[in-house]
From TrEMBL:
<dbReference type="InterPro" id="IPR014721">
    <property type="entry name" value="Ribsml_uS5_D2-typ_fold_subgr"/>
</dbReference>
<dbReference type="InterPro" id="IPR000795">
    <property type="entry name" value="T_Tr_GTP-bd_dom"/>
</dbReference>
<dbReference type="InterPro" id="IPR031157">
    <property type="entry name" value="G_TR_CS"/>
</dbReference>
<dbReference type="GO" id="GO:0005525">
    <property type="term" value="F:GTP binding"/>
</dbReference>
<dbReference type="InterPro" id="IPR035649">
    <property type="entry name" value="EFG_V"/>
</dbReference>
<dbReference type="Pfam" id="PF03764">
    <property type="entry name" value="EFG_IV"/>
</dbReference>
<dbReference type="InterPro" id="IPR009000">
    <property type="entry name" value="Transl_B-barrel_sf"/>
</dbReference>
<protein>
    <recommendedName>
        <fullName>Ribosome-releasing factor 2, mitochondrial</fullName>
    </recommendedName>
</protein>
<dbReference type="Pfam" id="PF22042">
    <property type="entry name" value="EF-G_D2"/>
</dbReference>
<keyword id="KW-0378">Hydrolase</keyword>
<dbReference type="Pfam" id="PF00679">
    <property type="entry name" value="EFG_C"/>
</dbReference>
<dbReference type="InterPro" id="IPR000640">
    <property type="entry name" value="EFG_V-like"/>
</dbReference>
<comment type="similarity">
    <text>Belongs to the TRAFAC class translation factor GTPase superfamily. Classic translation factor GTPase family. EF-G/EF-2 subfamily.</text>
</comment>
<dbReference type="InterPro" id="IPR035647">
    <property type="entry name" value="EFG_III/V"/>
</dbReference>
<dbReference type="InterPro" id="IPR027417">
    <property type="entry name" value="P-loop_NTPase"/>
</dbReference>
<dbReference type="GO" id="GO:0003924">
    <property type="term" value="F:GTPase activity"/>
</dbReference>
<feature type="binding site">
    <location>
        <begin position="84"/>
        <end position="91"/>
    </location>
    <ligand>
        <name>GTP</name>
    </ligand>
</feature>
Amino acid sequence: MSGTALETEARMLRIARKFSVNTLKSSRLCSEHMYFGNTRMGVISVVQQNCCLRSYSSPPGDVKSLRSVINPHISRIRNIGIMAHIDAGKTTTTERMLYYSGYIRAFGDVDDGDTVTDFMVQERERGITIQSAAVTFDWKDYRINLIDTPGHVDFTVEVERCLRVLDGAVAVFDASAGVEAQTLTVWRQADKHQIPRICFLNKMDKSRASFTYAVESIKQKLKTKPLLLQLPMGEAKTFRGLVDVVTKEQIIWKPTSDLDDGKNFEQKLLLEADDPNLFQEVQDARNTLIEQVADLDDEFAELVLGEYSENLDLIPADKLQSAIRRVTLAQKAVPVLCGSALKNKGVQPLLDAVTMYLPAPNERSYEFLQWYKDDLCALAFKVLHDKCRGPLVFIRVYSGSLKPQSAVYNINKSCTERMSRLLLPFADQQIEIPSLMPGNIALTVGLKKSATGDTIVSSKASAVAAARRAGRDAGGEKRSSSNIESLLLAGVEIPDPVFFCTIEPPSMAKQQDLDNALSCLQREDPSLKVKLDPDTGQTVLCGMGELHIEIIHDRIKREYGIETYLGPLQIAYRETILNAAQATDVLDKTVGDKRHFVTAELEVRPRLGERATTKPAIKYAVGVIEELPKEVQGAIENGVTNSCIQGPLLGFPVQDIDVTVQSLTMHPDTSHTMLSACVSRCVQKALKKAGIQILEPLMNLEITVSEDHLSAALADLAQRRGSVQEIQSRQDNRVVIATVPLAEMMGYSTVLRSLTSGSATFTLELASYQALNSQEQSALLQRRMGLV
Ligand SMILES: Nc1nc2c(ncn2[C@@H]2O[C@H](COP(=O)(O)OP(=O)(O)OP(=O)(O)O)[C@@H](O)[C@H]2O)c(=O)[nH]1
């Protein structure tokens, strides 16, 4: 056998063996990743041969169809996210989806730490999803790109980033808890991105599961119209199946004697004789559904009032399904399904609903796409670091196409990069493909500078052409360069971190390694910020929560082998101004034979009533902007933005200010760097004059606690400057809704656990920034100066 043939066979054996492994215990980041050949032909031949190796284990049933579906028709693609509160069952549901679609031979168990999508060591140990993992699989004739998103609020940015590339989402609920805090947060994020959703009431087998309660909480808390497409047959211990309200078919899972994997179920029309009460319930539910849909969809209303007005029973299932699809896509209502992922019930109908009711990529509209026409526009939405192949970047293509071995241009980084390979992330395998078409998602190899959230286009010329179109189509309105840039970007808004701490390597010799590790981690996770403390020269980590920083610390140790020391965790305060103030600054420097001369006059003003932002609004007095070339404007904007990164009092970011450039004169030889420096100094002067107010992060806190421990939790909250807004009942528990300053929440999880014997859970989410009173502000100043 030739060397190549031997290699191919070895590869085939490895592939076959890998499919037969029931549990995927090794970390996939370090494991050898297999390629199915470099060319399309290679893909076909290896897959065909592999299909013959049935004695090892059959590969996923549909792998052979890869030949025809490397780039399925856009209408057959579903880019779907699964979102929910922590522990609602997203990972378990994903595993079941992969199993039923044939991409894994046995499902993993979150509790045993062997799932496919939770693959980082920390995720397996802690049983939570930290980084969203994108997984591709086929269900019937559809390509599903599924993204499992994290439930912990420290990783909200991960959720936001995923929502950007999704066309639809499945919201998973614990049927015994209904809508929980994090679901609400993610739901709002999905509203912001206008993502059509379906709801899956999971855990119907749990002792306190209640379909009615969960539906009611969706109605009340999410302020949406649930469309009940299924009714459960039994609840808790008696939960055994579902009735499809649209088709009136009952689906009952029947375990075989040796296996209860949920593959075996009976689907048949529900007859009155089977269960008269249930039959009537389904009949009523179908009529209600028809009325709801007719209220929301004119086309369907015509059918109901016309052809079928005499007998609603005669409305064909496919007409009702099409109407449900239209109202779901228009986000006028949300289909609701139910099941138990753990007990293997309800996941196949959920997959059918995903393909039936959620949109294809071409059914969504994205504003930025109009500027690209048919040119490539893609978004890098996730970066992984593979020890052998370097950074792997997950990309979604919106328009145009992507090919391996080609150069692409990153708008955010203003650089051209070369991409060597394109891979489809099929379950835990990656399959090399020759091109990626609009609407699809893939992994790229070779992009070294691209980070999560970057927009990728075919070339600089294409970016310039798009910018020109965006500027030209502005309808006479003058847009600043940063406005045009934001129009072109498919990127994600990253909230500012609320916690920070210093991080030190064990010795100076390891500093370089630590810097490398941190820059890799930052490319993966843009919510992690790293900066250098200008006074002490120490590296500072800024993150979204205690858990976030803890995980980063852990990953540096495990993945990069560096034992680091973290300083005490501190709060990321903000600074703002109390009054308007003006300042003038003059820079006059001669470097070599060049004279750099600038005079700048600026005014700073508090911005009222808008969403808190650290991005200063930059304005120009009448007559100033007309005279300024674009590059000079860019340098001024740079200077203003830089001066707001570190406020004059404690060095925290400055928020909510307007800066007006009142006059500016400069010598023609002046460099842009000198101009920025002068503007920056002038803003700092004005800020100092305007009076600085320190702001602290105020958090929304939701504690779910049993009645017996409620008073202990409330007493503790009072000590933390907490303000209780509402106490709700949720089944046997109480839910405390409060706001509390983040500064009072250090180590809260440990305290709450001991106060409530581990029975309470909580979620914490940034609400706003509130002003410290003068006593608190001077106490903080003293602490920061080391006086107390
Ligand atoms: N009774 C019951 N338990 C379930 C069901 N689905 C999941 N679980 C359990 O609920 C726990 C959380 O499940 P996961 O799948 O990790 O939930 P998740 O939403 O992915 O959690 P995070 O990634 O941490 O946000 C595990 O102990 C599961 O075994 C279900 O249908 N019924």
